[in-house]
Design a protein that fits this description.
The protein is α/β, with parallel strands linked by helices and 479 residues long. The protein contains 18 helices and 16 strands. Strands 2-3-1-4-5-6 form a six-stranded parallel beta sheet, with helices on both faces. The chain is globular and about 100 Å long.
Length: 479
């Protein structure tokens, strides 16, 4: 109790508040929930530390100046009260000084509330409305990419491959909501042959709304997995939202990744399907995966394509094959497709390999979902190493599927048979352990209570010849 109270008055307290806001992605509600449940503010940075972005620096400076000003005003009231020139000054001054941690925990969100008003206010609504006309009038092919996972990967692959011949523009990074789409629209020149637009789904109705604004001519659905189940009440509801893209397109020019078995109930006769076995009429064979990339062969009638990408993983074959087949459909030559695929590389924190102390680390810590776990554990099986190590904290936002998903994760890890498994201690650890037990895992199991220290000192944990697969992130605002 005393330690918790002391943490409110430590010099690190302002930094802790800004970190909590940053980790909550500057969204007020999750930040406040975190503040309300926190007992010791000196221990909130358990898995990561504050990233000193421009916004974080400004907030931290404003917070420190505000606290200092409140303390000085408190001291002034105490002084005036002690001099008998202000009745009640001492009590009020002490109250001001004591209350500053509570006052500024809430005042910190004021810039966000005001900012949200100006950012999402009338001007932004006008920008979104104006973007509708830009998209509607654009003469190029407009490809919308939707799904529970793999959207950014598919968008980047399509952009890379199609750019070998065509003029292509795509939404940047993971900017995938209406305001981001509107800002993207204002930068278009009008001479683009293809636009690739990523759709983020957060709650029911999102995808249909994005489609009504961006007017896609084609849709690619990358898969369906438990995600955002804090907002979607079921996988069915999430699937209905994602496949509302097909409704907009009247089921024409809709391409669906059937490596994701969860999409099966939503498949319609007019859809064109792709997976790691075939894509748009091309048969796939000879898949080979190593630490430096993935190779495979595509065959259609007498035509043969031999492809090699630096992108790692069997699960990427369907995406690579679709991008290749779609590019051929749009008029690229076989030589252009082969060259384009050879230039594709792993994306940051998405099964990205790097060397550490003569060991190989596969970094797949960007977000996460059950299908991603499936891909990562399969990759662990596909690659050779002296010792295999698997590291994960589990998944967030799994809603009513939380227990089942994490038991399944444990079973998938057990099936991959790593020599060592490291779990980050949190509320889902027990379910993963249950899945490991069901899967009869017999290797070494470690539970880490201090993830930040563990990841920081990972080089001391690995040895030459090791293969380490790190999957998913677990922000500190989740327990």
């Amino acid at each position: 109790m005393m330690q918790s109270l002391i943490s409110l008055y430590k010099l690190s307290y302002p930094r802790s508040l800004v970190y909590m806001l940053q980790s909550s992605e500057y969204v007020v509600k999750p930040y406040l929930i975190w503040v309300w449940r926190t007992n010791d503010f000196s221990k909130v940075m358990n898995r990561r530390t504050l990233v000193y972005t421009r916004a974080a620096r400004l907030l931290l400076l404003a917070l420190r100046l505000g606290i200092l000003l409140q303390i000085l005003i408190g001291v002034l009231f105490i002084y005036l009260g002690a001099k008998n020139s202000l009745a009640g000054g001492v009590v009020f001054g002490i109250a001001l000084i004591i209350s500053y941690p509570f006052v500024w925990a809430y005042l910190l969100i004021l810039p966000l509330i005001l900012g949200r008003y100006f950012i999402n206010g009338p001007k932004s609504l006008r920008e979104i409305e104006e973007s509708k006309q830009i998209f509607a009038n654009h003469p190029g092919i407009k490809i919308a990419v939707a799904g529970s996972y793999g959207k950014t990967t598919m968008k980047e692959l399509l952009t890379s491959v199609l750019s070998e011949k065509l003029v292509v523009a795509s939404t940047p990074a993971n900017k995938n909501v209406s305001l981001s789409h509107a800002k993207f629209a204002t930068k278009l020149k009008g001479n683009e042959d293809v636009l690739v637009i990523e759709y983020g789904e957060g709650e029911p109705g999102d995808v249909a709304r994005f489609a009504s604004i961006t007017a896609p001519t084609h849709g690619v659905i990358t898969g369906l997995a438990p995600a955002h189940l804090d907002k979607y009440h079921s996988m069915q509801e999430a699937g209905e939202d994602i496949f509302s893209l097909a409704d907009y397109l009247k089921n024409k020019n809709v391409f669906v990744n059937t490596d994701s078995q969860s999409v099966n109930p939503f498949i319609k006769e007019d859809f064109e399907l792709f997976n790691h076995k075939e894509a748009l009429g091309w048969k796939i064979s000879g898949i080979k995966v190593d630490i430096n990339g993935t190779s495979f062969e595509m065959k259609k009638d007498s035509q043969i394509l031999k492809l090699r990408s630096a992108v790692v993983g069997r699960h990427q074959v369907g995406y690579l094959a679709f991008a290749s087949a779609f590019a051929l459909r749009l008029g690229l030559s076989k030589e252009q497709v082969v060259a384009a695929i050879s230039k594709t590389k792993p994306f940051e924190h998405r099964l990205q390999p790097y060397k550490l102390a003569d060991a190989w680390v596969i970094d797949d810590t960007y977000n996460g979902n059950l299908e991603g776990i499936r891909a990562g554990t399969q990759l662990l099986k596909d690659l050779s190493a002296k010792r295999k190590i698997y590291i994960t904290p589990g998944l967030v936002d799994q809603g009513v599927e939380n227990e089942n998903v994490h038991i399944e994760i444990g079973k998938l890890i057990a099936d991959a048979s790593p020599d060592s498994v490291v779990l980050m201690k949190n509320s889902v650890t027990k379910y993963i352990r249950e899945g490991l037990k069901i899967g009869k895992y017999s290797g070494k199991l470690s539970i880490e209570a201090d993830p930040l220290t563990f990841y920081t000192n990972l080089n001391h944990f690995v040895a030459s010849g090791d293969l380490v697969v790190m999957q998913n992130d677990w922000p500190d605002n989740y327990i």
